[in-house]
Amino acid sequence: MRKLLLILTLSIFGLGCSQKVPDTNKTSFSKEALNQKLEDEEGKSITIQQILDQHKGKVLVIDFWAGWCRDCLKALPKAKELEENNKNIDFVFLSLDSSKEGFDRSLERFEMKDKENYWFASGWKNDFNNYVDLNWIPRYMVIDQKSAIAKYYAISPEDPEIQTTIDKLLK
After folding, report:
1. Which helix (H) or strand (E) holds 168?
2. What is the pTM of this model?
3. What is the pLDDT of residues 67-98, one digit of tens each?
4. Is the Cβ–Cβ distance between 20 and 96 less than 8 Å?
């Protein structure tokens, strides 16, 4: 009886904590979202618009993650595999670590220093994350060559729609 009660309790908890799929698949960013500031590894401020401008003309995968996120860490090997299998596209990693020290530690600990990393110094709740309905990590988005959103919502680097989207954009 105890096992059944434990399983039922864990199931209810799991459902309550699961990621909610956004109601709308957005294809562009709002002005407020584009103006959202992040920090690079050196602490310099940069906006989402500036990041997108740096990758204009290329397919871009945005990976939301944090060093404290168990699901993110479990996804890292598959995210690295996605990156290895798509050397002709760009990847940007947006960290939701809770402090600059945590961000720096995570980059070092999980061998991310050679990647393009930014940190939301403003925290989880900000104009960009609110606009893209970020309610759980990891989360992946594919951005096309014109900085439009081609794949709005994926929670795993193994989501076949990520690769399908990339392949369509590269044709």
Report:
1. helix 160-170
2. 0.86
3. 999 999 999 999 999 999 999 999 999 999 99
4. no
